[in-house]
Write a structure and sequence with these properties.
With 352 residues, this protein is of the alpha/beta class. The protein is built from 11 helices and 16 strands. Bound molecules: phosphoenolpyruvate and manganese (II) ion (MN). The site of manganese (II) ion (MN) has 5 residues, from loops.
Length: 352
C-alpha cells in the first residue's frame, strides 16, 4: 500500500500513522520526493482497513498494490480449489457440473419428477428453493421446512446431491442436515453474520454475486467464509443490474475469466437468473463454458408455464436435454479446449 502524505503534515501526525501501522505488525517506510512525501506499508496489508488509514490527519490519499482479499486469492493458493460434493468434483480440473431444478420446491411429487428429468438429461446436482427471498411479500415464499423435507426425499429417491438457499443464521442446522451445498443468494451476499456462521461449518457453500456487487465485493464475501475455516466455496455469477432492460439482469460473463485469474475458487454461472429468459439460457450456458466456468446452474421445470416462481426463465426437460448435450462437449481449461466428445459423462456420485 502506498500512502500519499499531506504537504503540511506534522511529524507528530506521521508518527501517529506509523504507530498505528506498527500496531498491526506492519512496517511503514517514508520516502521523501522533490515536493511530496509518500509512505509505503510493508507486509500483509489485507489486515488494514483503507478507511481507518484515510482517517489519519497526515493522509492525503492511498493506493493498494495488492488485493484486499487474501485467502481467496491466487497469490495465496496457486492451484485451483476442487470441491467434492458426494463424489462430484467442482473445479478447474474437472468436467462441467450441470446443476438443475426448479426455482421453488412445489411438492414432493413434482420435485421428484423434475429431479428425474434433470438426472436423465445428464444433470448431476439438483437445485430447488425451499425458502424463497422474493421481492414482494405477497409472492410465494417457499414451502420452507416442508420444502427441505421434500429435498431430502429427492436425494433419497433420485440419488442426487441437493443445493438449496439459506436465508438466515437460524436455519443453519436444518440446512446442514438436509442439503449438500448451501446456497447464499444474491440478496444475502453481504449478510456478514450469515457468512461468518457458514465459515464455521464443513459444507460446500454456493455464494452468488449480489446484483449490485463488484467482483471485489464478491471475493471479500467469500473471504469471510474462508477466514472462518470453511474453504469449500463455489462462486456464482448470476447477472448484475445495469441500465439494459432487454434482460432481467446483465450476465457478466467476463467475471468468469477475471475471477479465475485472481482466485483459486471454482466459478459457476446461473444463466437463468442472469437473463430471465428461457430462450437465452442455452447460448449463455455455452458462453459461460467458453469463458472457463466450472459449472452451470439452470432452472428446470416439468411444466414451466405453471411454475410457482420464475417460470419465464425455466426450461423444460427437452430444452434442458439439449443444453446438457451441447454443454458436455467441451471445457476450457487453462485457456485450452478439452474436448469430451458427445458423451454425457459428469462423474458418478459415490456417497449417496
Ligand atoms: C435462486 O437461485 O433461486 C435465486 C433466488 O437466485 P438469486 O439469489 O441469484 O436471485
Ligand atoms: Mn428463481
Amino acid at each position: 500500500m502506498i500512502i500519499t502524505i499531506k504537504e503540511n503534515a506534522s511529524e507528530r501526525a506521521i508518527k501517529a500513522l506509523e504507530d498505528y501501522v506498527q500496531s498491526k505488525n506492519l512496517m511503514l517506510e517514508i520516502a521523501q520526493g522533490n515536493n511530496m512525501r509518500i509512505a509505503i506499508v510493508i507486509g500483509d496489508t489485507s489486515l488494514l482497513d483503507d478507511n481507518a488509514i484515510r482517517s489519519f490527519d497526515c493522509v492525503s490519499d492511498l493506493k493498494r498494490l495488492t488485493h484486499p482479499y487474501k485467502l481467496v486469492s491466487r497469490d495465496y493458493q496457486k492451484e485451483d480449489t476442487v470441491i467434492d460434493v458426494c463424489g462430484i468434483k467442482i473445479g478447474q480440473h474437472e468436467k462441467i457440473v450441470m446443476i438443475g431444478g426448479p426455482c421453488s420446491i412445489e411438492s414432493e411429487e413434482t420435485a421428484i419428477e423434475i429431479a428425474q428429468g434433470v438426472k436423465e438429461a445428464g444433470g448431476t446436482i439438483f437445485r430447488g428453493g425451499a425458502y424463497k427471498a422474493r421481492t414482494s411479500p405477497y409472492s410465494f415464499q417457499g414451502l420452507r421446512e416442508k420444502g427441505l423435507e421434500d429435498l431430502a426425499k429427492v436425494k433419497k429417491v433420485v440419488k442426487m446431491p441437493i443445493v438449496s438457499e439459506i436465508l438466515s443464521v437460524e436455519q443453519l442446522d436444518e440446512f446442514v442436515k438436509n442439503v449438500d451445498i448451501i446456497q447464499v443468494g444474491a440478496r444475502n451476499m453481504q449478510n456478514y453474520e450469515l457468512l461468518k456462521a457458514l465459515g464455521k461449518i464443513d459444507k460446500p457453500i454456493l455464494l452468488k454475486r449480489g446484483y449490485a456487487a463488484t467482483i471485489e465485493e464478491l471475493l471479500m464475501a467469500a473471504e469471510y467464509i474462508l477466514v472462518g475455516g470453511n474453504k469449500k466455496v463455489i462462486l456464482c455469477e448470476r447477472g448484475i443490474r445495469t441500465f439494459a432492460k432487454a434482460t432481467r439482469n446483465t450476465l457478466d460473463i467476463s467475471a468468469v475469466p477475471y475471477i479465475k485469474k485472481v482466485s483459486h475458487l471454482p466459478v459457476i454461472v446461473d444463466p437463468s437468473h442472469g437473463t430471465g429468459k428461457r430462450d437465452l439460457v442455452e447460448p449463455m450456458t455455452l458462453a459461460a463454458i467458453a469463458a472457463g466456468a466450472d459449472g452451470v446452474m439452470i432452472e428446470v421445470h416439468n411444466n414451466p408455464q405453471f411454475a410457482w416462481s420464475d417460470g419465464a426463465q425455466c426450461v423444460n426437460f427437452a430444452e434442458y436435454n439439449k443444453i446438457v448435450e451441447k454443454a458436455s462437449i467441451f471445457k476450457i481449461k487453462d485457456g485450452n479446449i478439452t474436448n469430451y466428445g458427445r458423451k454425457k459423462n459428469y462423474g458418478t456420485t459415490k456417497t449417496l
